[in-house]
C-alpha cells in the first residue's frame, strides 16, 4: 500500500489554509460596488399581510413581493402518490407562514444601515391561529397552513402488513411513544450569498455557501426564469453544511433578481439569529411504536405510526416528502423480522421548512427502534445486547433484502456488536452497578446498532420524483503541461477533505505525487454536472468517477510511454511514479510533457483527445451502500440533579474500504458530537403561537469541547461488492446512534428507580421529573439491573 | 444583528463619565461589552450614547487594606482567574471566575459590569453577597457606600441611578478560621447557572451566611444557619423552605443540591 494512496492516513491538504485563516468563504468575497442586504422578516408565525408601508424616501432601496417581476415561487415537487407541493414566494405574498419568513429586502452600503431601513418599514399582519404542533396539525378543524390543501399534510404513506396475525402469537407486546425535538443545524459558518450580474458574459454569478451548486443553479434558473447557461454558481470554501446548505434559498432568488435590476453586486450573510429562528430546521419526529416478540426475544413484528414536523414549505430540492417517507423504509434498521407496518405523516406547521440533517430520518428511527428493543429486553428480563444478537441480520445472509426491500450489500453486524460489548466492558459495568457508587450516582450502559444507506442512486431516487435524481457521476481529469494532475468534480467539499481523498484515489492509480494533484470543485462553470454533496455519496460516486477517469488516462499514458520506451503497451508497468519497459523507464510527468511540448515524439495512433478525460460512473448496483456501526456508552446519572456524565464511548464501525482512515475518524468524532447535541442538549422549542424560543446560543445549547468525550473507534472494513475499491459512504453515521445509545444508557441507570425517558434531548429536568413520576406512580420496583451475561 | 446607530465617547475620569451620564437621557456604560455588546447587536438596547469606561485607570485599581481588599469595577474575570489580582479568599474568587462563560469572555468581562447588570444567575452577584461585600458607587454628588445585599433588588434591578457608576467592590478579608464554598449547577461548562450555592463562614467575625443564587430574582440569604460538615440534602431543603424559596420540585432539588455542594466544599478544606 502506497504512502499516499488508498488507506493512507494522510494529513489534509486543505487544512493548511483553513488552520491559518487563509480560506476564502463567502464572507471574504469583496466585489467592487457591493452593497449589503438585510431582510425584514415576519414577526408572527401565521397571518395575512394587510399592508406594507414603506416611506417614499427609502422606496428605491426596499423591495417586496410585488416588485419581483418575472420571479416564480420555489416549488419542490415529489411524485409520491398524494404529495402536495407548496409555493414558497421568495418574498412573502399574501400570507406569512413561519416566523422569520422574508417580507422585504432592504439594500444599503452596510448591513447595519440595511437593518436600519428594515426597522423603518411598517408591516400590518392580521394574525391567524398558528399551527405549532405536528400532531395537532393532523386534526380536523385546525387552522390550515395552505388553505387550498384542505388539511395540513404534505404526504401520508402506509407500508401495510397483517400485524394481527402475528400479535396473537406474541409472548411480549411493548408499546412506546417517542418524541425527538426540533433542532437547528449549526454549521460554524451560516448561509451566505454574493450575487452579481456580468453584462459581458450576460450571466448571473452567485457565490453561495452551498453543498449542491449545480442544483442551486437549476433552481435559480427556474425561479428567475432565465436559461441555466446564464447562471453560474460558485461555492468557495464552505464552513460546514450537514444538509443545512442543501437548499435553494429564497435569499438566493431575491439577490439573484435584485443584482440584475440594480446593476451592482449584493451580499447577504446569515447571522446567528436568522440561522436559529428563520431558516431550515430538522429532526422533529413523533412515533408510536409497538414491538411484538416471542418468549426467547425473537422479534415478530413492528407496528409504527410516525409523524414528521415538516414546517411550512417543501424545501428545494429534497422536498417535504423525504424525511417522513424515509422513516417508513428504514425504521426496521439492522434487524430481521417477519412483519412490519408503518404509517407516516409529513405534517405542515407554521415553522421553517425541514431539511435532511446529517443522518436524516435515520437518527430518529434509530432512537425509536433501539429504545423499544431495550424496552422489550427489560420486559423479558434479558440483556439488551443479547436481544439484539438474536435479531440482527447475520453475515451469512449478506447481501440481504430486508422487509422494506433495502438491499444490504455486505457486513457483519453481530461482530460489531460483539466487539462493542467487549470493548465497553459490559460484564464489568454490570458488576459495578451491583456495588453502587460512593457519590450516589447511578451507572448505566446502553447500545445502539444501525446501518446507514448512502450513495443511493437512480434506482432509488427515480421513484421519489423530487427535483433531483442522481444518475451517473462524472469526473474530469487532465495532466498539466508540467506533469501535475488537475481533477474536477461536481461534488463539493465542505468539511469532507475531498482535496485530499480524491488525490489519494488518483495517486493510487496513476502514481503522481499527492502534492502535485489539484482538486477543483464548487463552481458550475468549471466542473461536471453533479447533484452535489449529500447522502454520503461523494467518495462512492465521485471517487468512482475519478478512478474511472484515471484508468482511461492511464491507458493513454501507457500507449505514449510504450512508444518512447520502444516496447509494446502490454510490457509497460507502473511502479510508483514511474513507467517501466523491458529496457528503460521514465517518470509519468515526462510522458505528459511529451504530449504538450514534443508532439513529434508521440505514436502515430495517439488518441487525439490527449491527456484530458471526462469519465462517468455509477456502482454496479446503485441501491446504496450500507455502512454500519455499534455504539456503546456508559454514563453516570446524578439522581438528585439529573446531570449526566458520559464515562466511556466505544464505536465499532464498518465503512467498507477506507480511503483515509484519519478523515473517517474525524467524520465519526464530529458526527458523535452532533449526536450528543441531539441526545442531551439541542432543542428549538416553539410556543403555542409557533414562536421559536431559543433565539441565541445562550438558549440553543450546542455541545462544546467539554461535553464531547474521548471516544474509542474500532474499524472493521468489509468491502462493498458493488463499488470501486469497495468503499462505502460514511459521513453521517456518527450522528445517527448517539441519542439511542446514550438514552438507553440513561434508562439502564434509572431502571432501579423505575424511570424511563423516551424523548430527546434528555435534559436534567426531564430526568428528575421522570424519577419523580415513577416514584409517585408507586413504580418503585427496586429491580436489580439486568443479569451480567 | 447590527446595532442601531449610536455615538461613542471614552472619558478618562470617573467624574467625566458621571457628567456624561447626567447629561444624556439615553446613555449606556460600556465596560467589557460582554453583555451590552450582544444587546446592542440584537437591538435590545438602543442608546444614543455609549460611554466606554475602560480607559479610566481608577476603575481598574486594586486597593489592599489590613482588613479588606477593594477591587475596581473594571477588573476583569480573567485577572481574578489568573491570580493577577492576588487572591485573598483561599481560592474561592479564582474558582468562581473560572466558571464564568469562556476565556474570551473572561478576558473582557468585568466585575462591575456583571454586578450592575444584576442578572439573577450571575456568579459574582451571589458570591459577593455571601462574602459581605459593599459597593462604592460614584454619582454627581460624589461617592456612596452600600452593602451588596441592599444593592441588588431583583432580576436586572439594582439600586443604581441612571447617572451613577459602580466604581469598586470592597471585600472584607477572611480570617484563617474562615471556610467558604461555591457551587454552580449548569447545563454546560461556563453557562449561566441554573442553581448557585455559596457558603461563607468566618467565626472570628461572627459571620456565617448561605446564599441561594439563580432563583430568578434577588439571590436569597440565610444568615447564621449553623451548619457543619454533616449537612445533608433535607437540611438544605429545609433552609430553602425557611427562607421562602418557592419553585417547582426540580428547581428546589437542584438549588438544595448546589447548597449542599458548597457547604461540603467549605468543610472539606
Quick synopsis:
The complex is a heterodimer of chains A (789) and B (269). Chain A is an alpha+beta fold and 789 residues long. Chain A is built from 19 helices and 29 strands.
The strands making up the biggest β-sheet of chain B line up spatially as 4-5-10-6-7
Q: Helix amount of chain B, in percent?
A: 25-40%
The structural class of chain B is: alpha+beta
N→C terminal distance of chain A? 41 Å
Largest sheet of chain B: 5 strands, antiparallel
- Strand coverage percent of chain B: 25-35%
Q: Could you say which structural class the secondary elements and strand pairing of chain A correspond to?
A: alpha+beta
Poorly predicted segments of chain B: none
Q: How many domains would you count in the coordinates of chain B?
A: 3
Order of helices and strands of chain B: EHEHEEEHHHHHEEHEEEEEEEHH
Query: What is the radius of gyration of chain A?
Result: 28 Å
Low-confidence stretches of chain A: 785-789
Dominant shape of chain A: globular
Largest interface: A-B, 28 and 22 residues
Multimerization status: heterodimer
Helix tally of chain A equals 19
Number of DSSP-assigned strands of chain B: 14
Helix proportion of residues of chain A, in percent? Answer: 25-40%
Which of globular, elongated, flat, extended, rod-shaped describes the shape of chain B? globular
Amino acid at each position: 500500500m502506497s504512502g499516499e494512496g488508498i488507506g493512507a492516513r494522510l494529513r489534509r491538504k486543505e487544512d493548511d489554509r483553513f488552520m491559518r485563516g487563509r480560506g476564502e468563504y463567502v464572507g471574504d468575497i469583496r466585489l467592487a460596488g457591493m452593497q449589503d442586504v438585510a431582510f425584514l422578516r415576519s414577526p408572527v408565525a401565521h397571518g395575512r399581510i394587510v399592508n406594507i408601508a414603506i416611506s417614499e424616501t427609502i422606496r428605491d432601496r426596499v423591495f417586496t413581493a410585488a416588485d419581483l417581476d418575472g420571479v416564480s415561487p420555489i416549488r419542490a415537487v415529489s411524485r409520491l402518490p398524494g404529495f402536495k407541493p407548496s409555493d414558497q414566494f421568495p418574498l412573502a405574498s399574501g400570507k406569512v407562514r413561519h416566523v422569520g419568513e422574508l417580507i422585504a429586502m432592504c439594500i444599503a452600503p452596510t448591513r447595519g444601515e440595511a437593518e436600519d431601513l428594515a426597522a423603518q418599514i411598517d408591516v400590518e399582519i392580521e394574525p391567524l391561529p398558528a399551527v405549532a404542533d405536528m400532531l395537532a396539525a393532523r386534526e380536523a378543524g385546525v387552522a390550515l397552513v395552505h388553505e387550498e390543501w384542505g388539511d395540513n399534510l404534505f404526504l401520508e404513506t402506509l407500508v401495510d402488513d397483517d400485524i394481527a396475525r402475528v400479535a396473537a402469537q406474541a409472548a411480549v407486546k411493548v408499546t412506546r411513544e417517542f418524541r425527538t425535538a426540533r433542532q437547528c443545524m449549526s454549521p460554524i459558518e451560516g448561509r451566505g450569498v454574493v450575487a452579481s450580474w456580468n453584462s459581458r458574459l450576460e450571466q448571473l454569478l452567485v457565490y453561495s455557501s452551498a453543498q449542491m451548486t449545480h442544483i442551486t443553479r437549476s433552481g435559480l434558473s427556474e425561479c428567475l426564469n432565465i436559461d441555466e447557461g446564464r447562471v453560474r454558481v460558485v461555492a468557495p470554501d464552505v464552513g460546514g453544511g450537514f444538509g443545512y446548505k442543501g437548499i435553494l434559498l429564497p435569499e438566493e432568488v431575491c439577490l439573484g433578481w435584485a443584482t440584475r435590476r440594480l446593476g451592482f453586486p449584493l451580499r447577504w450573510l446569515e447571522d446567528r439569529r436568522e440561522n436559529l429562528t428563520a431558516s431550515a430546521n430538522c429532526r422533529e419526529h413523533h412515533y408510536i411504536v409497538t414491538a411484538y416478540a416471542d418468549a426467547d426475544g425473537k422479534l415478530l413484528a413492528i407496528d409504527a405510526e410516525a409523524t414528521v414536523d415538516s414546517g411550512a414549505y417543501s424545501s428545494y430540492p429534497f422536498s417535504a416528502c423525504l424525511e417522513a417517507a424515509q422513516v417508513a423504509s428504514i425504521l426496521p434498521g439492522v434487524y430481521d423480522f417477519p412483519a412490519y407496518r408503518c404509517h407516516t405523516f409529513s405534517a405542515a406547521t407554521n415553522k421553517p421548512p425541514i431539511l435532511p440533517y446529517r443522518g436524516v430520518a435515520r437518527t430518529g428511527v434509530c432512537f425509536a427502534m433501539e429504545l423499544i428493543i431495550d424496552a422489550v429486553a427489560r420486559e423479558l428480563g434479558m440483556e439488551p445486547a443479547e436481544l439484539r444478537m438474536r435479531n440482527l441480520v447475520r453475515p451469512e445472509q449478506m447481501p440481504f433484502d430486508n422487509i422494506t426491500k433495502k438491499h444490504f450489500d455486505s457486513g457483519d453486524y453481530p461482530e460489531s456488536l460483539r466487539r462493542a460489548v467487549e470493548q465497553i466492558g459490559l460484564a464489568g459495568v454490570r458488576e459495578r452497578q451491583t456495588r453502587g457508587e460512593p457519590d450516589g450516582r447511578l451507572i448505566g450502559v446502553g447500545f445502539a446498532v444501525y446501518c446507514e444507506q448512502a450513495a443511493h442512486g437512480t434506482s432509488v431516487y427515480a421513484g421519489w420524483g423530487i427535483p433531483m435524481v442522481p444518475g451517473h457521476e462524472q469526473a474530469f481529469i487532465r495532466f498539466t503541461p508540467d506533469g501535475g494532475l488537475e481533477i474536477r468534480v461536481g461534488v463539493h467539499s465542505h468539511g469532507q477533505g475531498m482535496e485530499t481523498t480524491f488525490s489519494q484515489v488518483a495517486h493510487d492509480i496513476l502514481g503522481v505525487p499527492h502534492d502535485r494533484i489539484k482538486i477543483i470543485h464548487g463552481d458550475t462553470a468549471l466542473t461536471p454536472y453533479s447533484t452535489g454533496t449529500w447522502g454520503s455519496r461523494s467518495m462512492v460516486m465521485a471517487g468512482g468517477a475519478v478512478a474511472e477517469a484515471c484508468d482511461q488516462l492511464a491507458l493513454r499514458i501507457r500507449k505514449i510511454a510504450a512508444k518512447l520506451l520502444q516496447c509494446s503497451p502490454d510490457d509497460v508497468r507502473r511502479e510508483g511514479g514511474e513507467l517501466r519497459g523491458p529496457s528503460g523507464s521514465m517518470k509519468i510527468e515526462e510522458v505528459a510533457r511529451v504530449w504538450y511540448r514534443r508532439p513529434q515524439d508521440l505514436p502515430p495512433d495517439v488518441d487525439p483527445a490527449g491527456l484530458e478525460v471526462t469519465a462517468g460512473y455509477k456502482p454496479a448496483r446503485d441501491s446504496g451502500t450500507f455502512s454500519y456501526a455499534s455504539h456503546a456508552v456508559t454514563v453516570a446519572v446524578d439522581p438528585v440533579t439529573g446531570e449526566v456524565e458520559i464515562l466511556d464511548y466505544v464505536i465499532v464501525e464498518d465503512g467498507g474500504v477506507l480511503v483515509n482512515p484519519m478523515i473517517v475518524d474525524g467524520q465519526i468524532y464530529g458526527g458523535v458530537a452532533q449526536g450528543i447535541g441531539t441526545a442531551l442538549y439541542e432543542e428549538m422549542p416553539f410556543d403555542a403561537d409557533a414562536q421559536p424560543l431559543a433565539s441565541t446560543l445562550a438558549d440553543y445549547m450546542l455541545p462544546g469541547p467539554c461535553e464531547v468525550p474521548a471516544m474509542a473507534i474500532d474499524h472493521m472494513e468489509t468491502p462493498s461488492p458493488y463499488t470501486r475499491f469497495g468503499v462505502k459512504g460514511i459521513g453521517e453515521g456518527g450522528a445517527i446512534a448517539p441519542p439511542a445509545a446514550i438514552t438507553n444508557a440513561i434508562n439502564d441507570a434509572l431502571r432501579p428507580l423505575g424511570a424511563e425517558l423516551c424523548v430527546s434531548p434528555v435534559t436534567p429536568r426531564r430526568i428528575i421529573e421522570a424519577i419523580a413520576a415513577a416514584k409517585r406512580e408507586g413504580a418503585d420496583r427496586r429491580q436489580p439491573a439486568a443479569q451480567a451475561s | 444583528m447590527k446595532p442601531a446607530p449610536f455615538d461613542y465617547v471614552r472619558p478618562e475620569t470617573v467624574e467625566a463619565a458621571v457628567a456624561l451620564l447626567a447629561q444624556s437621557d439615553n446613555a449606556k456604560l460600556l465596560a467589557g461589552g460582554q453583555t451590552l455588546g450582544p444587546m446592542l447587536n440584537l437591538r435590545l438596547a438602543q442608546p444614543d450614547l455609549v460611554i466606554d469606561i475602560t480607559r479610566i485607570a481608577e476603575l481598574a485599581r486594586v486597593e489592599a487594606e489590613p482588613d479588606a481588599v477593594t477591587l475596581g469595577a473594571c477588573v476583569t474575570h480573567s485577572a481574578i482567574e489568573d491570580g493577577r489580582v492576588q487572591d485573598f479568599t483561599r481560592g474561592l474568587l479564582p474558582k468562581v471566575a473560572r466558571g464564568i462563560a469562556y476565556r474570551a469572555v473572561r478576558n473582557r468581562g468585568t466585575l462591575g459590569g456583571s454586578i450592575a447588570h444584576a442578572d439573577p444567575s450571575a456568579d459574582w452577584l451571589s458570591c459577593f453577597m455571601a462574602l459581605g461585600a459593599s459597593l462604592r458607587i460614584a454619582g454627581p454628588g460624589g461617592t456612596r457606600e452600600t452593602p451588596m445585599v441592599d444593592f441588588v433588588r431583583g432580576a436586572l434591578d439594582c439600586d443604581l441611578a441612571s447617572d451613577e457608576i459602580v466604581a469598586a467592590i470592597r471585600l472584607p478579608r477572611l480570617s484563617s478560621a474562615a471556610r467558604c464554598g461555591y457551587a454552580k449547577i449548569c447545563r454546560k461548562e461556563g453557562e449561566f447557572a441554573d442553581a448557585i450555592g455559596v457558603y461563607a463562614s468566618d467565626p472570628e467575625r461572627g459571620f456565617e451566611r448561605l446564599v441561594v443564587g439563580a432563583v430568578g430574582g434577588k439571590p436569597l440569604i440565610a444568615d447564621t444557619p449553623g451548619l457543619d460538615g454533616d449537612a445533608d440534602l433535607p437540611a438544605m431543603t429545609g433552609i430553602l423552605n425557611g427562607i421562602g424559596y418557592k419553585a417547582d420540585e426540580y428547581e428546589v432539588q437542584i438549588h438544595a443540591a448546589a447548597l449542599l455542594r458548597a457547604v461540603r466544599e467549605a468543610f472539606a478544606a
